[in-house]
Amino acid sequence: MLNQFSRTELLLGKDGMERLSASCVAVFGIGGVGGYAVEALARSGVGSFVLVDDDKICLTNLNRQIIATRKTVGQYKADVMKERILEINPSAKVEVRKCFYLPENAGEFDFSHYSYVVDAVDTVTAKLEIIEQAQKCSAPVISCMGAGNKLDPTKFQVADIYETTMCPLAKVMRHECRKRGIRALKVVYSTEKSIRPSDDMEISCQTNCICPPGTKRKCTQRRDIPGSVAFVPSVAGLILAGEVIKDLIKPLEQA
Asked: pLDDT digit string (tens) for 103-115?
């Protein structure tokens, strides 16, 4: 029967679509990278999602985040993403967790229920905890390295963390993964050298924050606020989604 995924089924086949429909993908971080990853996964037919993000949409997110519009500013990112998924596929199951994932609340998540885990957060502590918990439960996991302060989307590559170069975040992650005995980790990373952003305080969140009073401001806690564009984090997110889809249907391809 013709449906919204019929064009995808022409490439992946009925069995592939059934596998995706039965899959649950947990996405940690629904920002510039994670939002596009979820978008592509939803449009590919993934049937169940767990969306983890405690942040609200800010006006400065409009330049790169697919869920950010003038109408959605001030709303929780996970809530907006859930609504968007259901507009694409009303049959999808979407669980929203409005929290910042850390070792302190890791026990609230059961990774054994996830068919795949997408790490699109930007703090090392959270990334490492996500990866460790996923691997303990034998849940496939893919992690995105740095996408800020870059302008060339063609420089992204998929590799094991220990094969990465250039990316400062990947360097830290290599060191920390080695310390924790993490032997392998699929990542999306860029070989582009990071650009030093302007330190113009007139357009800096640190001195001219426009978030409503009472908003949790993780961005202002940064030593440096990275620059970003529409066409870099989006590409990273789409690459993440592509790898997830390929891995979820791989058993069928190998059969």
From this structure: 999 999 999 999 9
